[in-house]
Amino acid sequence: MPTAIDQHPCRIQTAADMRYLHDLNVQISQKRRSVSVSRQRERDLCNQHFDTFETFWGRPGHGAPVADKINKLKLDNLLYGVPETAAN
Residues 76, 77, 78, 80: is their CA dihedral positive or negative? Predict the structure, then answer.
């Protein structure tokens, strides 16, 4: 006559079943740890990217070269002649 233990399908019957269950739990733990590490690495890379571009694009002119007034004056002198105030 079958007992209540025999009728319950979720009962772990053998040591092999217990090892299999343990191995599955280990795999689940490793996968969760791997996903967690991957997410943390992605967050770190994202923050590093934002820090890099915040300093790069935070400069005046958004990274464009700084205007040189001397070259502009030289160009004006070539195109329009020397201003009278500078000639005196």
Answer: positive
Cβ contact 11:4 at 8 Å: no
Q: What are phi and psi of 77, to 5 degrees?
A: -65, -40
Instruction: Tell me if residue 85 falls in helix, strand or coil.
Output: helix
Contacts for 18 with CB less than 8 Å, ≥ 6 apart: 12
List, for residues 30-72, the tens digit of each pLDDT value: 999 999 999 999 999 999 988 877 766 555 555 566 666 666 6
* pTM strictly above 0.85: no
Give yes or no for a contact between 40 and 46, defined as CB atoms under 8 angstroms apart. Answer: no
| pLDDT at residue 8 is higher than 60 | no
Domain range summary for the chain, segments of one domain joined by + = 4-63
